[in-house]
Amino acid sequence: MAGLAADFLNLHLKNPLVLASGILGTSPSLMARCALAGAGGITSKSCGPEPRAGHDNPVALAWQGGVINAIGLTNPGAQEEVSLLHETRDRLKTLGVPLFASIFAPTLEQFGEVARVIADAEPNLIEVNISCPNVASEFGTPFSATAEMAAAVTREVRRAVSLPISIKLAPNVPMIGDLTHAVAEEGADAITAVNTMPAMLIDAYAGRPVLKNRTGGLSGPALKPIALRCVAEIASRVSLPIIGTGGVSTGIDAAEMIMAGATLVGVGSAVWEDGPAVFARIANELTGFMVETGYSQLGEMRGRAMR
């Protein structure tokens, strides 16, 4: 029988499937629902130093290639988030499912400040979102744009907390391997790859972009080939574990992500599309694939496509 257990840093997950950040907010009941439905790990929605209402509607649209969104990092602010994370952590702990807390900030110093606040909730890992593609007009150039900026954020967060940290990178950078090496040098424990891809949809009849923000982040099936390439390149440069995220909606997708070099597999738009039950389906499909092809554990697949 094929085993889906996954070791990640100092954690042991029942399977490699992780709820990606930003899909279902940080409601403790929804996070627990995903865990009960079969998620191996849970990532909260990104929170920042202050509350944010996000962008005006329309902010999200499903289309034939996936989902495009410009939610705008809606969140209650770090101080309020801590209480939500405390309750979420306690619920997940009874289920044996780890909690990853996602953070963002508009300035270098605030990344450290938010990390310190969120560390009080004692999540199993802090995911550092330096790559949101739909708030650049407010925050300026994303910190994931250059190795120097990515390294500076990593250094700031590493100084602020002793918890494990994963740096979430963008797909639209020229040399993602260089960024990965830079953040690894500054103390990153893991990499999350990747965030959504900047994109736009236009309503030809209305003669204007569909989203109020004009541009947004593209996720879903259209993102998968890009994410696979990024994960493979990252795995070729560093030995850090990778949370491979982007376009995973089937067990075969998850297998491909692991074969590219991922240790865990983020699931996002598929949850938006099909609900939390998608975790059990993907896990069952992944088990079926492993039995069919003779893999007894995930480690036998990891990085196979790049050997």
Which whole number gives the mean pLDDT?
95
Structural class: alpha/beta
Rg for CA atoms: 18 Å
CATH superfamily: Aldolase class I
Helix tally equals 10
- Please tally the β strands and state the result: 16
The parts where pLDDT drops under 50 for at least 5 residues are none
Write down the overall geometry.
globular
List keywords for this structure.
8-stranded parallel barrel; 4-stranded antiparallel beta sheet; 307 residues; TIM Barrel; alpha/beta
In short:
The chain has helices at residues 28-37, 78-95, 108-119, 136-139, 147-160, 176-185, 224-237, 251-260, 269-274, 278-293; strands at 6-8, 11-13, 17-19, 41-43, 60-63, 66-69, 99-103, 125-129, 165-169, 190-193, 197-199, 202-203, 208-209, 216-219, 242-245, 264-267. The chain is of the alpha/beta class. It has one domain: Alpha-Beta Barrel (TIM Barrel), CATH 3.20.20.
Question: Any overview of this molecule?
Answer:
Helix content is 37%, strand content 19%. It is built from ten helices and 16 strands. Strand 7, helix 3 and strand 8 form a beta-alpha-beta unit. It starts with 5 loop residues before the first strand and ends in a 14-residue tail after the last helix. The model has no long low-confidence stretch (mean pLDDT 95).
Record the SSE blueprint.
Elements: E1 6-8, E2 11-13, E3 17-19, H1 28-37, E4 41-43, E5 60-63, E6 66-69, H2 78-95, E7 99-103, H3 108-119, E8 125-129, H4 136-139, H5 147-160, E9 165-169, H6 176-185, E10 190-193, E11 197-199, E12 202-203, E13 208-209, E14 216-219, H7 224-237, E15 242-245, H8 251-260, E16 264-267, H9 269-274, H10 278-293
Parallel strand pairs: 3-4, 3-16, 4-7, 7-8, 8-9, 9-10, 10-15, 15-16
Antiparallel strand pairs: 1-2, 5-6, 6-14, 11-14, 12-13
